[in-house]
Batch of 3 targets.
Target 1
Amino acid sequence: DSDGTPPGTIYKDSISVRLTIPNGIGNITTLTTVPNNSGFFSFNAVPIGSHDLQIIYQPSSDTLKRFVSILPKSRHYGEYYLSTNVW
């Protein structure tokens, strides 16, 4: 949330993370995951480029939108905070 508190076991299922990427045949696809208790999430096989990342707190439909840039042979790490204290 806004002060960096992880969701824990109670709230982790209240968050979904969506990453929109090209699918390789001219369209786009959206990968979806949920964070673990500590708030960490990851995606595998993300292509090079800038991609739309959405972190959604589902009870209030509060959505944090960011772009992530993936460079060749890189590992991206970012810290994202919701706009309010929700837990």
Target 2
Amino acid sequence: MTFLNFVTKNKNWLGAGALLTLSSSYGQTFFISLFAGKIMEGFSLTDGQWGSVYALSTAFSAIVMVWAGALTDKFRARSLGVMFLCILAFTCFLMSLVTSFWVLPILIFFLRFSGQGMLSHIGSVSMARWFVASRGKALAIATLGFSFGEAILPMTVAFLLSFLYWRSIWVAAAVVSLITIPILIKLLKVERTPQANSENAETVGQLDNRHWTRNQVLSHWLFWLYFPSIMSISMWGTALFFQQVHLTSTKGWSLLQFTSLIPVYTCSTILAMMFYGWAIDRYGTSKLLSLYQIPMALSFFLFGISDSLFMAGIAFALFGITHGANSTIPGAFWAENFGTKNLGSIKAMATAVSVFGSALGPALSGILIDYEIPFSKQMPFISVFVIICCFLNWIAVNKIKRIYD
């Protein structure tokens, strides 16, 4: 089947996956952080305090994800998608009204849980479960929603903030989320469900040729070798976007100049997603696991040492390569190695780890900023951390080869 035929035949399911990942944007750091300056000013917060509030809320969302993510093994993506879109829309509306500091962490929790957590999780798990031979391509296409949001929303919001009150933008986000609901229902009018799949429709994992439960995965050495990599991209990628207001001020750039480079990152991400989607279907994830984060290590090194917008563009392109790979490889990795029967609960644990990483990155970087260590000075050390993750993945891949080849 050609790529065009694949997309045409499965356009509703793929479109639903992309719509879910796009809708998660309002709970993603690249969107919320655009309001960081306004929020810190309105609530008289330092970088470290705002980072800590954000981290605490995100960490709680990670804990809840461990339970809530398993719902994708039992309920339709359509039902779950509608429910969490409603939660996200209501939370966005409340963000336009919040004046109490004690309410702010609660709203950040619901943004992160419903948006970054559940909507992206539902989209990813659905693609990995519904498609087998074309799993990589399906994940890549569905994840285009992320890329579209990252390309359009930062520049749009930065532009709107120049003449609109920041709270009005949150009202618009709530309205768009509600408009998305009937579109999702129409796309998934006919939908596969976990319960409807027969036992032989589920694919077993290549490890021991069986279906693994979440507890069994947690007791396996492969999970723990891959654990730092699960955290790495979300931890430091989130920190990059979370600290964009601080980073631009220390580099002497305007926020609009910085966000205007994001389409470079988006194009790079999309091209990488398409490539890795094809590569996963052809070679599997094992041959890609130890290499896909290397461009990210180079990216943070360049961000750290250079004050040039041109070099920042190259750094964005490199980070986009890793981000595109990360949009496809982990989802396929869990299904390929541990099977699809309990994929929702397994990936929920991985998503929780990723979400926890996205809490830790802003908090740690914000605290260091309060101690007068600019984020740009932190970045070369982040590169070293990423290289260590690549080395651990290399150990994991070679250990699998020795055991199962």
Target 3
Amino acid sequence: MIVTFGEVLLRLSPPNHRRFSQADTFETYYGGAEANTAVSLCCLGEPARHVTRLPANDLGRACRGELARWGVDTSGISFETAPDARLGLYFCESGVSQRPSRVIYDRKNSSFARWDHRELDWDALLGDADWFHFTGITPALGEELDAAALEGCAAAKKRGIPVSMDLNYRANLWSKTQAGEVLSRYLEFVDVLFANNGSLADVFGIDEENSAVDNDPSATLAAAREVSRRFGIGEVALTMRQSISASCNQWSALVYHGETGQHFLSQGYRMEIVDRIGGGDSFAAGLIYAKRRKFDHQHAVEFAAAASCLKHTIHGDVNPVTEQEVENLLACGGAGLIQR
């Protein structure tokens, strides 16, 4: 059982690439970095439980139902019954061509954000777990959640459970200095770190000169080696994205193994993007899945990159693709041939 921990938000997006100022209706999706990873894992075929807190109202129950319909174990969900309990929101304006996507958060004082860390029983939540995953977004939401995430990591480590963290630096939530100071404390627990060149530069000041060059394998490898050396991380998985435009990206990934010094690079994909939200989450799910199924190292990075490539073609935050769909993409060399 893979346990993920983080906030679930209600996303509102203007349809058809409209701007916020043009919107007279919004499409709605439920999502959050860790929950997206849990859904992807379940769709691939791995059991996952998501730990979060929701308001005890119709929105909270609908959110739980949405996770459950993808097969996520919702027994780790707590409900807040206070009259002002609320589900966090975020608004996403999808970019196209040379106009970038934009995100506005409305998540302050959500039920998750004001969760007292003493209410989480990690012994129970991790009782049957054999993997723990979280992201750097959760500690950014306040001292209580920072404490909760640290306690979850410590409890997992005590049980010998592998821990993975997606760095996921969000400038709208905290400063680079704050992120670096807080997230450095987690890395002693982390077995697999997910990130990209830009987030490593933002949070840890690693290879800042090349942080904007997110598609250079040599620069990416150098950053992976440095973060592994500095913090003693066994495995560093970095995505590489070249933005040709907001709707056309080049995509690939690199995984570095600190103990052996080996690295593995995936093939590249030129993607026509439908929705890039959740791209990194689906990559993390793909690699966790591949590792648990004991794929060889090259197949693992290829599988994770291909799974994430498919996510970019799907509306919403989650990646509802199967293992066979990912393998089909790999078998056709990334061409997306029709399946009859």
